[in-house]
Amino acid sequence: ELLPLTSASDRIDYKQAVEKLTGKIKERILTRALQLSGGNKTKAAQLLKISRYALIRELKKVGKEVDPGT
User: Fold this and answer.
1) pLDDT (average), residues 37-46
2) Which one of 11, 44, 64, 70 is CB 3.0 to 4.6 Å from 33, fit for a cystine?
3) Residue spans of alpha helices (H) in the chain
């Protein structure tokens, strides 16, 4: 659960919640670009208008396995 609040007295770590949400959004964007490119990282990076290196770095950040050969 992204925001595990059950009552008004519960506290939430704002920074941690934002980082978690941002990571999930990035993961979905990266995954979709890879789907659209048929798994080709160069084409996925072009779709996202980032370098292939940046794509690989972002994939690692969100915990996706990276095969550098594709």
Assistant:
1) 96
2) 44
3) 14-36, 41-48, 52-61
